[in-house]
Amino acid sequence: MFERPRSGEKAVLVRIGVGTPATEQDLNEFTALACSAGAHPVATIGGFRPRPDPRLFVGSGKADQIRAAAVEHGAQIILFDHALSPSQERNLEELIGLRVLDRNGLILDIFAQRARSFEGKLEVELAQLRHIATRLVRGWSHLERQKGGIGLRGPGETQLETDRRLLANRIRTLTRRLEKLQRQRDTGRQARREVPVPTVALVGYTNAGKSTLFNSLTGSDAYVADQLFATLDPTLRRVELPGSQIAVLADTVGFVRDLPHELVAAFRSTLQEARDATLLLHVIDASDPQRLERIEQVNEVLRSIGAGDIPQIEVFNKIDRIGALPRFERSADGHRSRVWVAAAPGIGLDLVRAALASALWPHLERAILNLDLQAAAVRSQLYADHRVRGERVRDDGGWELEVEMTPRQLAALVRETGVNRVPGAAPCEPDNASLQSRAPKAGAAR
Asked: How far apart are alpha carbons 251 and 338 in whole angstroms?
């Protein structure tokens, strides 16, 4: 029976075009994935098939070519840029004599290396165990009986059955722990919902510069690296926007082509931030020649997790690599905005902040309110919600407040006891005007 060898670093990469020819960009991305996992690619095998072979995924001739390349270069592992069935993986291992890892297993390995939080490590382990559970059959050479003899008669339990039972027990334990952590996170989200501070989730293809933009906007020090899946654990920070507005910015895991379903299911805490967000900041690598395909791939993942209908602002990052200037654009329907920036050198960040303020508070109105002493609780809440723009204490001890909020919020506020609106106060200028005034200034400064 085939005994799986220890994993190594020298790898043969296999990228077969199935139905359509393989592109150079997809091969480069797969090479980056392999390097991110710590592998050292020594050979690349390409090709084309109209459909996968049910036994080996590739044809027998291509499998012999892979084995020959592995022997020639002293490879220790074969990496496939495809999702292999358990039987295909076992058949290839038996034929080639080396460990075979498919795309899903490779991404899981990267996630296992990058997870830093306790919850992230649990999520990765759960996804790995579910992936391994389908690949236990014939993966072991020690299937001898473990029980029997006097007092323990019966067929006994094989090593394979024991492993399956231990895996099932561990999966149940991890599921219970993650459910408890999920309830704790839900409590935190509920507390944020009670305070009317909107949440903006950074989403995008992996290595598009989300964490760099996150740090630039919030002054945080989230981990940044020029590698795939540098961020796995969600990070939340407060960001100050024009008009003294406050929002919560959430940095999330990057998406990738053919993201494994078990990862989508396991990383629900990170993806939940995107599902519950008021607005999505879709970060795009402007220098990527496949950026249009990447946009659609990210939107496909967003639709699969139930976040496809959340409003988006598209941020085209890394414009310094293509020699473009920072600018703001609005789509023909007026709903989708685009901002062109370079997060690393800090170019165009004012445009991002102004676009966020415009999208989160599109119809703000400024008003003067007279608050009696009995409305002290209302005054405290207005300050807690960051709605106060100015204040004057009246002679009778009450307050005259200048506030900024939506017309609906203002109408509800003036119905409170002890709150009266001073007639004649003009609304503030539209946020679009501030955008237009800021954009040329940002371009001129840079």
From this structure: 19
